[in-house]
């Protein structure tokens, strides 16, 4: 259904650079084009022995890849009746959150304990369920229709919960008895969601440790993120400090694990990426085959991730001043220097993840804060709000939207209110 001509008649090498104009954000470099030429030549005269060794190695490592890819490989290599493939069938039909809840109906990038909820994995898993239940009527019990309906939803539970709780506390919600039950349940969710153990043989599969971290959505999504971990840690600390009625508290040892993880994720330049430390040089981006996104070959450090980590560690240091105090102090200084270096001449910072970010929460020098405030004030719109177009991410420069937007306005006000010049 995807092609307008016979599949086997398509000249696939000619399609390598056949990209829709709207998706062509990063054209292939000359180096990558040359590498493709070499690989095409090798493919025509490849070593059978080397190919067999490579396939065996890939088969061993495929268990750490996306679940749908894993299923297809197991089916092709081991067969549909093999225990490995049947175990996949079972988990597809029974996947649910460890707290008994579906992950917003979505499916992880890999396995239940080591995955990431993404659209293509959810779509392929949904299609697989429908095909299995249609062509294998002996498979019981079928997935209820309401769970299939949920498959169109994604998950950002930890991220949303952390900021929602911080908003409650900022507004004094902890002083209202009607909100205490809500805050108690939020604390329980964040407490439950912390990743308690590292994946099996994670170093063998080139993974960073994730024990003590927090994912973007739920614990089923075992891929921890630096800013999610920092915001969840900050939320737990604030809840336990401002709501003493919340029980049981997260043990200090578990908080130490989150801090230890954050300290291990610091880059040599003082900044923080998303999932791991920067493992390659920026030069490798020239070999990226992803035309529709940039900065995907190495987990580069970002200002927003660094800022979240600094705020989480600063709060932790105030409450637990004895735990790795020297390392935390060094990390805070390194993060501050990184953010200073990233500030642009107009006072702004580039925020590659959500949008163009200007954050002035940290108490920096007067000149740096004043330049950031000036940038925000210069871009306030006639109706009093702020608005930014998504093209800011694409063009790496501030692009103002036609209308003011509530989230841009809120972030701008938070930054301005956090400065001593507000």
- By DSSP (H or I, 4+ residues per run), the number of helices equals 15
Give the uncertain stretches in residue-range form. Answer: 96-104, 150-154, 353-363
Strand fraction: under 5%
Overall shape: globular
Gap from first CA to last CA: 58 Å
How would you characterize the largest beta sheet? 2 strands, antiparallel
**Strand numbers in spatial order across the main sheet:** 1-2
Structure description:
There is one protein chain. The protein has 422 residues and is mostly helical. Helices cover 48% and strands 2% of the residues. The protein has 15 helices and 2 strands. It has helices at residues 30-44, 48-61, 67-78, 83-94, 119-135, 145-149, 157-170, 177-193, 226-242, 252-264, 303-319, 325-342, 366-378, 391-395, 406-417; strands at 386-388, 400-405. The chain has a two-stranded antiparallel sheet.
Lay out the secondary structure.
Elements: H1 30-44, H2 48-61, H3 67-78, H4 83-94, H5 119-135, H6 145-149, H7 157-170, H8 177-193, H9 226-242, H10 252-264, H11 303-319, H12 325-342, H13 366-378, E1 386-388, H14 391-395, E2 400-405, H15 406-417
Antiparallel strand pairs: 1-2
Tags for this model:
2% strand, globular, two-stranded antiparallel ribbon, mainly alpha, 48% helix, 422 residues, 15 helices
Summarize this, please?
The protein has 422 residues and is an all-alpha fold.
């Amino acid at each position: 259904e995807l092609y307008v001509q016979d599949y086997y008649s398509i000249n696939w090498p000619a399609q390598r650079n056949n990209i829709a104009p709207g998706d062509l954000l990063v054209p292939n470099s000359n180096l990558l084009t040359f590498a493709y030429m070499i690989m095409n030549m090798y493919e025509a005269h490849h070593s059978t022995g080397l190919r067999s060794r490579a396939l065996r190695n890939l088969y061993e490592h495929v268990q750490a890849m996306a679940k749908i890819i894993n299923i297809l490989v197991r089916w092709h290599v081991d067969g549909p009746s093999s225990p490995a493939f049947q175990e996949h069938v079972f988990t597809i039909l029974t996947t649910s959150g460890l707290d008994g809840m579906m992950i917003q109906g979505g499916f992880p990038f890999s396995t239940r304990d080591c995955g990431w909820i993404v659209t293509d994995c959810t779509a392929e898993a949904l299609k697989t369920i429908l095909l299995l239940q249609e062509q294998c009527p002996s498979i019981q019990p079928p997935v209820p229709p309401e769970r299939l309906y949920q498959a169109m939803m994604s998950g950002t539970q930890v991220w949303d919960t952390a900021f929602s709780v911080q908003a409650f506390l900022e507004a004094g919600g902890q002083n209202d008895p009607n909100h205490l039950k809500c805050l108690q349940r939020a604390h329980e969710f964040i407490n439950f969601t912390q990743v308690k153990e590292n994946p099996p043989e994670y170093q063998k599969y080139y993974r960073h440790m994730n024990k003590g971290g927090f994912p973007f959505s739920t614990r089923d999504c075992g891929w921890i993120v630096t800013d999610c971990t920092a915001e969840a840690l900050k939320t737990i600390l604030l809840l336990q400090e401002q709501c003493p009625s919340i029980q049981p508290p997260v043990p200090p040892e578990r908080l130490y694990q989150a801090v230890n993880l954050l300290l291990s994720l610091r880059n040599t330049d003082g900044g923080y990426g998303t999932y791991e430390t920067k493992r390659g040089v920026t030069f490798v981006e020239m070999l990226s085959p992803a035309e529709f996104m940039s900065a995907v070959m190495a987990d580069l450090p970002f200002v927003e991730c660094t800022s979240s980590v600094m705020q989480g560690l600063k709060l932790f240091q105030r409450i637990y001043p004895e735990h790795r105090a020297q390392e935390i102090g060094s990390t805070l200084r390194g993060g501050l220097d990184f953010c200073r270096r990233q500030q642009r001449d107009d006072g702004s910072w580039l925020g590659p993840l959500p949008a163009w970010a200007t954050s002035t929460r940290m108490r920096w020098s007067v000149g740096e804060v004043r330049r950031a405030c000036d940038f925000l004030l210069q871009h306030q719109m006639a109706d009093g709000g702020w608005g930014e177009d998504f093209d800011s991410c694409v063009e790496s420069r501030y692009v103002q939207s036609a209308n003011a937007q509530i989230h841009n306005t809120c972030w701008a006000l938070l930054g301005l209110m956090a400065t001593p010049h507000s």
